[in-house]
Specification:
By secondary structure, the protein is mainly beta. The chain is 13% helix and 53% strand. The chain has 1 helix and 8 strands, in the order H-E-E-E-E-E-E-E-E. This is Lipoprotein.
Length: 112
Amino acid sequence: MTTIPTRTTTLALTLAAITTLAGCTGTSETATVRITADPGVCWTGTIGDSTKEGCGPATITGVEGIAGVYAASVQKKTPGTGRLRAELLIGGKTVDTAETTAEFGAVMLTSH
């Protein structure tokens, strides 16, 4: 039997990869993830080692890295082509940015 991956399966595999990083030696530096979303666009994601949800913009501070690697995965929960953008900042400097307008689209950020 052949299984075709779905968006949910793909996001689950992505989150599993981020969780795998948790087994590495930690670091004390923290980062910030800035999320920008069009009005009415709700999202969910794994940011560092925690799950966050929201609608519209958000700034998540105190994101911890694992062995100097910072990661976040954010997915739209709202149907439609509204924009979702995420930005990873370390020391106030942008190190990665991604955006999507795809229905239920996801973005992934990493410092490496």
